[in-house]
Every structure is written in structure tokens, then in C-alpha cells.
Design a protein that fits this description.
The protein has 588 residues and is mainly α. Helix 4 packs across helix 7 and helix 21 packs antiparallel against helix 23. A two-stranded antiparallel sheet has the order 1-2. The protein contains 24 helices and 2 strands.
């Protein structure tokens, strides 16, 4: 059986499973559509949360970014994992106890203000749309390779699949679909990693293989990798980046994680407050299975690619383009791997042509510029092909990559649609809307969100994980501060919370637009071309904590100058933090 047919069979079987689950668990009420009727077991919710969390950025792009940069990009791992600790300790149980359907609903009720709720809806939509672009981009990458079509065609196929099960099932269908998707993606991620770790180090555990001896050279794997990348003019793989930017970026991802609406609403689906904490704990366990493996996958992918191009070592001649391996031929079809013969020697020169220190050596070897462009998002998906693993493993990782992208996309789209139907339409535009019509509005809103996400995904502003990082910065600057102040400060009033959110959103968006906005207009990849003269050297992806600090400061300043919240609101805040029962989940 050829690889294309095998891919179709494996991917098709998983899609049939997802859509079958959605039909079986079709939402028949708003409670089922928004919160799965609050009946999800903590272990299943932890698994669904892990799938919701481990998006295309985690599965497809994170290891690719680590492969491309090395240790400095371990900030993705540290920030995302640390954020779940914050979420479990500081937000999830209290928000569940409040007993609402959406994040803007909590903000509107806690701050006794329709204006605060509407500002929260705007923030949520901006964050979720930015985030979902990365997921649709990742899904398009996976579809384009394994169905051998253009990336844009793959993106439209991904949209159709999400539409089929997300619009139908709502949170109830998405939850049980995500449980299945977690099983698919974790198997798909770890099996190729085990094979590749065995090939390179003889150790079947990738996270231990990363620190084991490279079988062929006899050197520690990371030392061997440092050697080959520096021989090509790149920075050492284990080199440390700017401590300020690494700290800010890690913090941005941490507090951004704790403020992501599509993650928070997962904790509204469990029966009790204690279950919200247990869900977060189980989610960390399930996430760790992939996150411990990702650094090894990134390092081994980088080494395998260089060995593919320079089989006799980086200081020897590169492979002739006409003799390139099959995996390169198949990925060239997608447009995500490109070769340009700049010096006309017919060989694939791959090196850091921006390294001033390496320029003399490159000139001596007759190199006139890097000739091979490899999109970071393809590394995880291409890794089994590079390592020449069996065809079923390649098909499996295709299914896993798609499961990761589609599970998170569905969660984000649900967050968008529920805010539009529940917070905008029911609360503001049509207060007397029936439950049946509200459910219809939610489904139409989700269909519209899918279309918008697809159109934006056709021209993404960066790699999947980089685009997602911008969404984290926005969540850190807007949602996280107002939730923290809403739970832990009785003095915080509606005016302070509203102004704080606006300041955090506007300042962060202005910073992003200042450095990235014109690249959107030009239609180019913003994160490959941005100028380096950032304010205080802070890149846009690490600006979230600054926006959060301004949000906190503004909110406290405005609240101290305006009237304190009513007594019943202060009592409500106190009751949220007192561990008595699960609260009444009315959904109103």
C-alpha cells in the first residue's frame, strides 16, 4: 500500500471517530452547548483540557521552534506549563464556584457592569481569533503534506472538518471528541520520538535520549548537535538568549495561559469546585507526557536534517539537489520547503548566511548564500520521513498533528461563539431570546468564526507557535489581570476593571501594530522581517507582562479614585474565596 493511501485510511478513520462522537453527543440545550451540562468527570476533563491546550503550536510548531533556535526557545515549555499551575491555584476553582458559562459573564456580574462585560467580549474575540489563526495554519500544513495539496486547500479541508463536529456538538461534543483526539495525538507524538531516539542514541525514552550519547559519533547528543550547527555558522544549540527577554516571554506565556478564555471555560464543565482543581492537575499530567518529549524531538529533528543534507559532516560537500531524499521532494509540493541554487553548483547549501563570523569560511567554500528554506512548522511532521520510519508511523503523526490543531481550534471557536450568543445577543441585543434561538445563534456564530479564522489563516502573521504567542500576550494584558482582581480584591470596582482592560488591550495592540502591523498590510511573515529596534529591546511576543502591569496599575488607580463596589458585590467576592460547596451554577 502506498503512503498516500495509508495516510488517507488513518486520518479518515480518526475523522470518522470524531464526527461519530459529535453525533452521539449532540448538544440539545444551551447548558450542553456551553458547558456540557456540567457533567464531565475530572479525569476526562483533564484529558480534554490537555487536547484543547496542546494545539498545533504544541504538536507541530513548538518542537520546530526549539529545533531552529535551541535552548532559548525552551521558554515555550516553561511558560505554558507554569501557566497551568497558576490556573489551578489561582483561578479555576473560584471561577467554577461562581457558576457561569463564559468569562465575560463572570466579569459582567462581578463588576456589575454591562460595559465591563462588553469590553471583555471584545478582548476575548481578539485573543481567540489571533490564537485560532495559528491552529488553522497548523492544520493547513498537515493537510497539505499528507493529502499532497496546497496549504490553502488543506486549510479549507480542516475548516470543513471542524465545522462538521464543533457546530453540531458544542461543548458536549467537543469535550468527548477532545478525549479521543488526546489519545490520537499523544500516541502519534511519542511513537516516532521513541523510534528516532533509538536510532540516534539507543535509548527508547526520548527525554533521556536527549542527554544520552550519540551512537554514531560517541559524543553526548547535545554536544554533537552544538558541533554541527556551529560548523554551519549557527549559534550553539545550548546557547542561552537574553535573560530579560526570556524572563518576560516566559511570564507572558504563564499569565497568558491563565487568562485564555478557551482554557478557562473547560473548568465550567465539571460538577464541583474540587473537580476543577483535579481537572487542572490531571491536565498537567497529560500535558507533561508530550512536553517532556518535545525538546528531544526538536534536537533530534535538527540533527537529522543536517545529516540529511551533509551525510559526511557539515564540513564536507552537501548533497546534490537532484539526489535529494524523497522526504524533500514530497515537502516541496507544499511550498514549505524551497531550494534556490544561488552559486549554480547544483548542491544544497544550508547555513547561517547572516553570521558575520562565518562569512569568510562560506566564501572560501564557494557559498554565496543559504539555498534551503525550511518552514519550522514542518519539522515534527517530516521527522518520521527524514528518519525513514515505517509508513504507518508517518500516517499516525499526520493524524496526531491534525488532532492537535483541530481540538484547540474547536475550543477557541466555542469560546467565540458562546460569547457572541450568550454575552452579546442574549445579554444586550435580544434579552428575551428563547433557548432554542440562542442555541441557533451560537451555531451560526461558530460557523462565522470558522470562516473568519480560515480566511485569516490563509495569510498567517508567523509560524503557528509564534502567532499563538501574540494571543498569549493579549490574554496576559487583558483577561488575566481582571480575573485576578475580580477574585482577590473586594475594592476593585467596575470603572477600574473596565478602564484597566481597555488600557491593557490598547497599549499591547499599539505595541504589536507598531512593530508588526505594516507586515499584515504587506502580506509578509511579520516575525521573519520585523525591525530589531524594539522599545527597551522587548520583542512584541514578550510584551504581555508590560501590558498586564499597566492594566493592574490603571485599575487600582481608577478604583481608588472612584466609588467602592456595592456591599452585596463585596460579599459575593468573599463568598467565592471561601471553600464552602460548589456554588449554584445557574448559567444566568
Amino acid at each position: 500500500m502506498d503512503q498516500y493511501t495509508l495516510n488517507l485510511l488513518i486520518v479518515g478513520a480518526t475523522f470518522a471517530l470524531y464526527i461519530g462522537i459529535a453525533i452521539w453527543s449532540r448538544a440539545g440545550s444551551t447548558a450542553e452547548f456551553y458547558a456540557a451540562n456540567r457533567g464531565v468527570h475530572p479525569v476526562l476533563n483533564g484529558m480534554a483540557t490537555a487536547a484543547d491546550w496542546m494545539s498545533a503550536a504544541s504538536f507541530i510548531s513548538m518542537a520546530g521552534l526549539i529545533a531552529g533556535v535551541g535552548y532559548a526557545n525552551s521558554t515555550y515549555l516553561m511558560g505554558w506549563t507554569g501557566g497551568y499551575v497558576l490556573l489551578a491555584l489561582l483561578l479555576a476553582p473560584y471561577l467554577r464556584k461562581f457558576g457561569k458559562f463564559t468569562v465575560p459573564q463572570f466579569i459582567g456580574d462581578r463588576f456589575y457592569s454591562l460595559s465591563a462585560r462588553l469590553v471583555a467580549v471584545i478582548c476575548l474575540i481578539i485573543i481567540s481569533v489571533t490564537y485560532v489563526i495559528g491552529q488553522m495554519t497548523g492544520a493547513g500544513v498537515a493537510f497539505s503534506r499528507f493529502l499532497e495539496v496546497e496549504a490553502s486547500t488543506g486549510l479549507w479541508i480542516a475548516s470543513a472538518v471542524v465545522f462538521a463536529y464543533a457546530v453540531l456538538g458544542g461543548m458536549k461534543g467537543i469535550t468527548y471528541t477532545q478525549v479521543a483526539q488526546y489519545v490520537v495525538l499523544i500516541i502519534a507524538y511519542t511513537i516516532p520520538a521513541i523510534f528516532i531516539s533509538l536510532q540516534l542514541t539507543g535509548n527508547p525514552l526520548p527525554w533521556l535520549g536527549l542527554f544520552s550519547t550519540h551512537t554514531e559519533s560517541g559524543l553526548p547528543l547535545l554536544q554533537k548537535l552544538d558541533q554541527v550547527v556551529t560548523d554551519l555558522g549557527f549559534n550553539a544549540y545550548t546557547a542561552q538568549g537574553s535573560m530579560l527577554n526570556m524572563t518576560l516571554f516566559t511570564l507572558s506565556l504563564m499569565i497568558g495561559t491563565a487568562g485564555l478564555p478557551h482554557v478557562i471555560i473547560r473548568f465550567f464543565t465539571v460538577p464541583k469546585v474540587a473537580d476543577a482543581r483535579w481537572s487542572a492537575g490531571w491536565a498537567l499530567v497529560f500535558i507533561a507526557l508530550l512536553y517532556l518529549t518535545a525538546p528531544a524531538v526538536g534536537a533530534m529533528a535538527r540533527l537529522n536534517i543536517i545529516n540529511t543534507i551533509f551525510p559526511n559532516g557539515p564540513k564536507a560537500e552537501a548533497v546534490l539537489y537532484e539526489e535529494r531524499p524523497d522526504w524533500m521532494r514530497t515537502w516541496e509540493v507544499t511550498g514549505l520547503l524551497k531550494f534556490e541554487d544561488k552559486n549554480g553548483d547544483g548542491r544544497m547549501q544550508y547555513y547561517n548566511d547572516k553570521s558575520a563570523g562565518f562569512a569568510t569560511q562560506a566564501a572560501e567554500r564557494g557559498w554565496t548564500g543559504n539555498e534551503l528554506t525550511i518552514n519550522n512548522d514542518i519539522l515534527v511532521l517530516a521527522n518520521p520521513e527524514i528518519a525513514q520510519l515505517p509508513g504507518w508511523v508517518i500516517g499516525l503523526i499526520a493524524a496526531g498533528g491534525l488532532a492537535a490543531a483541530l481540538s484547540t481550534a474547536a475550543g477557541l471557536l466555542l469560546a467565540i461563539s458562546s460569547s457572541i450568543s450568550h454575552d452579546l445577543v442574549k445579554e444586550w441585543l435580544v434579552p428575551g431570546i428563547s433557548e432554542k434561538n440562542e442555541l441557533m445563534v451560537a451555531r451560526v456564530a461558530m460557523a462565522g468564526a470558522i470562516l473568519v479564522a480560515t480566511l485569516l489563516g490563509l495569510h498567517p502573521p508567523g509560524f503557528a507557535a509564534q502567532t499563538v504567542a501574540l494571543a498569549f500576550g493579549l490574554a496576559a494584558a487583558t483577561i488575566f489581570p481582571v480575573l485576578m482582581m475580580g477574585i482577590f480584591s473586594k475594592r476593585m470596582n467596575s470603572t477600574g476593571a473596565t478602564v484597566g482592560m481597555i488600557v491593557g488591550l490598547v497599549v499591547t495592540c499599539l505595541y504589536l501594530f507598531t512593530y508588526l502591523g505594516w507586515f499584515f498590510i504587506a502580506g509578509t511573515n511579520m516575525l521573519e522581517n520585523v525591525p530589531a529596534n524594539y522599545l527597551f529591546g522587548i520583542p512584541p511576543t514578550a510584551f504581555g507582562p508590560i501590558g498586564a502591569l499597566l492594566n493592574f496599575a490603571t485599575a487600582y488607580l481608577v478604583s481608588s479614585m472612584t466609588k467602592a463596589p456595592p456591599a452585596h458585590v463585596q460579599e459575593l467576592v468573599e463568598s467565592i474565596r471561601v471553600p464552602r460547596g460548589a456554588g449554584v451554577a445557574t448559567g444566568h
